[in-house]
Design goal:
The chain is an alpha/beta fold and 398 residues long. The protein folds into two domains: 208 residues, Response regulator (Rossmann fold), CATH 3.40.50.2300; 121 residues, Response regulator (Rossmann fold, 3-Layer(aba) Sandwich). It contains eleven helices and 15 strands. The chain has a seven-stranded mixed β-sheet with strand order 7-6-8-9-10-14-15, sandwiched between helices. The protein has a five-stranded parallel β-sheet with strand order 2-1-3-4-5, sandwiched between helices. A three-stranded mixed β-sheet has the order 11-12-13. Helix 2 packs parallel to helix 3.
Length: 398
């Protein structure tokens, strides 16, 4: 039903000059760039499944521009260099019209700067949350369907203070995501009267973080802003082994089943976490009822990936061509008022309205998607907790 080309290994290569997308006689192709290998490899497949579901729904409801919607994927490995090579392939070889992705912020920036900007390619990331994306020089080509960590840091700070945690120690992975999140959290937490006992960066890929943990023991409340598959797991495991901490906190990158590999779940029972959530309402209810092989509606960033792919499909149909020119403006048109509401899965309805010249406004699985000047969206952040060895969503953080 759709094409899924998964590159499990990429290498840095000399990038060719990006060429315009080749217009297809019918149908359209979009790309997906994400970390199928590397520190978020357990988080990526459910995110990809969210985009795949859109492709299935579009093709089951009559297709796009008179043909099928296709999806090609490439592994960005949560790494800027690997992502640049992945973008070169999907943009210059596969000639995609637009890209869902990437996922890690540095990965998105590397992919876009590598071939996206010169190729005039619209990127919609479902997961790149670092504040650095807001100020990227992108000619209005880079958007995201998840809120910035400027918001997540503020909400985490409010949550921890509301729980009576008056001091915390922070360790963050030394990249755009980790530093941006840590800066936002620290500023909001101190503004609320809390004390940052330590705020220490760590490098990805080490086997031993005991030295870093030794610099964090001024507080028994440990915040880890990292990735579940990588340093997040190692730091949490070694922190538990040290016995120096009583409360554990993680950001969205830590919310994955692999986080607890090799860790006694009872030792982190009640661990606090945050991630982007969705409001209640008809659109969310419709989305949560969807089923498909490999698809989990409430997986971390799956709703945002669904919205990114659906929005790009709507924008391509609105633009009336697979050419890249004009797609950014079309994306803004279909994602905001005024217009008749389109909800998840309502592809056939949307096509009919577009053909009739009627304005539409997509209300998504992750909420409203009214992009601001920087391509950012408002959003909500939810609290999760580890209960019985898995993460359980506890509700909206006010």
């Amino acid at each position: 039903m759709f094409k899924n080309t998964l590159t499990l290994a990429v290498a840095a290569t000399t990038l060719s000059i990006a060429a315009p997308a080749l217009a297809q006689d019918s149908g359209a192709t979009i790309g997906f760039i994400g970390g199928f290998t590397g520190p978020i490899e357990s988080l990526t497949p459910p995110i990809f499944a969210g985009a795949q579901l859109v492709v299935s729904q579009v093709n089951e409801q009559g297709g796009i521009l008179g043909g099928d919607l296709s999806l090609v994927s490439a592994d960005g490995a949560c790494d800027a260099t690997a992502a640049a090579a992945a973008a070169d392939r999907v943009i210059n070889t596969d000639n995609v019209t637009a890209v869902v992705g990437a996922l890690c912020t540095g990965e998105t920036i590397g992919a876009f700067n590598g071939s996206g900007l010169s190729g005039n390619v619209v990127f919609v990331s479902p997961a790149s949350s670092a504040p650095a994306l807001t100020t990227l020089e992108d000619n209005d080509l880079v958007f995201r369907t998840t809120p910035s960590d400027a918001l997540q840091g503020e909400k985490m700070a409010a949550l921890l203070l509301a729980k009576g945690l008056q001091d915390i120690a922070i360790t963050y992975v030394n990249n755009d995501y980790g530093k941006g999140f840590a800066d936002s959290l620290a500023a909001a937490y101190e503004a609320g009267g809390g004390t940052i006992s330590a705020n220490v960066a760590h490098e990805e890929g080490k086997a031993d973080y005991r030295a870093e943990l030794g610099n964090l023991v001024a507080s028994q409340n440990l915040v880890v802003l990292a990735y579940a598959n990588a340093s997040g797991n190692t730091i949490l495991r070694q922190a538990v082994e040290s016995g120096n901490f009583t409360t554990y906190v993680g950001g969205d990158g830590m919310v994955g089943d692999d986080l607890l590999n090799g860790i006694d779940a009872s030792a982190v029972e009640g661990m606090i976490a945050t991630r982007a959530g969705a409001p209640t309402g008809e659109s969310v209810d419709i989305y949560n009822a969807f089923t498909a092989d490999g698809f989990t509606a409430n997986a971390t960033y799956a709703p945002q990936a669904y919205d990114a792919a659906f929005l790009l499909a709507l924008a391509i149909e609105k633009n009336g061509t697979t050419d890249r020119e004009g797609l950014s403006a079309a994306l803004r048109d279909v994602s905001s008022a005024p217009g008749e509401i389109i909800r998840p899965g309502e592809w056939e309805k949307a096509k009919e309205l577009i053909a009739a010249g009627t304005d539409i406004n997509y209300e998504g699985a992750g909420g409203s998607l009214d992009f601001d000047e920087a391509g950012d969206v408002d959003g909500i952040i939810v609290e999760l907790a580890v209960e019985g060895g898995s993460f359980v969503e506890k509700g909206l953080i006010e």
